[in-house]
Amino acid sequence: MALIAPSILTADWLDLRGALRSAQGADLLHLDVMDGHFVPNLTFGPPLVAAICREAQRPVECHLMVERPQDLLARYAEAGAGRLIVHAEATAHLHRLVAELRGLGVEAGVALNPGSPLALVEEVAGEIDLLLLMTVDPGFGGQAFLTGQLAKIREAKRRFPHLLIEVDGGVHLENARTVAEAGADILVTGSSVFAKDADPAQRIKQLQQATR
Ligand code: DX5
Ligand code: ZN
Questions:
Q1: Which residue from 109, 112, 100, 41 is spatially nearest to 75, judged by alpha carbons?
Q2: What are the helix (H) ranges across the chain?
Q3: How does the average pLDDT of the chain come out, rounded?
Q4: 3-210 in CATH: which number?
Q5: Please, are residues 132 and 166 in contact by the beta-carbon 8 Å criterion?
Q6: How far is CA 158 from the centre of its chain?
């Protein structure tokens, strides 16, 4: 069984309230924070995250695709995100960053890009709650799932059985069950839920049924 975490990156930003309402059946919400440096895109600042957290009625996690996460953790925690996910590639001091997350009283997640080995999180695996495995190169929604990452998902579940394994990028109705069966506990999905021709509430239900 896997939880479904819609990413609102590809929702209609001119109707965010409507997007949040349509995602009320989701298990949690995934906010992609991008700083234009770590990835070539720019998205949500703390004020917008705070507004979303007030409105969302679902647990909110922030996926911090930012170059200096240490400068921003407190502001996104104050904004109301219950889980902050930092990229192992964005710091030389991952152990200290995870300790800072703990100190802020939020759930601690670490993300790995498709090109990064699981070994990067080996030494902090006992201190975190969640490992986010990117199945696209980060920065944009609507990209194709990198099927070569399925083996990494299986290996992560085997090596870190105590961790929540979250998979992010290119997940949709056709591959959701395969990704869940590979070991994903949480599936992030953006363009599949907020596709032009899809009813987000119905698509979320379909994804939940496909992975139960
Ligand atoms: C990409 C983001 C993903 C993305 C998922 O950098 O981290 O969360 O928004 O969107 P889809 O499901 O469209 O790949
Ligand atoms: Zn993400």
A1: 100
A2: 16-22, 46-56, 73-79, 94-103, 150-159, 176-181, 200-210
A3: 97
A4: 3.20.20.70
A5: yes
A6: 20
Write out the residues surrounding ion ligand 2, Cβ under 5 A: 32, 63, 168
Compute the distance between CA of residue 166 and CA of residue 29 in angstroms, rounded to an integer. Answer: 13
Among 77, 34, 82, 74, smallest CA distance to 57 is for: 82
Which pTM value belongs to this model?
0.98
pLDDT in tens, 158-189: 999 999 999 999 999 999 999 999 999 999 99
Q: Is residue 29 within a helix (H) or strand (E), and if so which, with residue range? A: strand 29-34
pLDDT digits (tens, 9 = 90+) for 120-143: 999 999 999 999 999 999 999 999
Report helix, strand or coil for 200.
helix
The Cα–Cα gap between 209 and 189 comes to 14
Average pLDDT over residues 27-34: 98
What are the domain boundaries of the chain? 3-210
Residue closest by Cα to atom 9 of ligand 1 = 141
Q: Please give the number of the atom of ligand 1 that sits closest to the Cα of 39.
A: 6
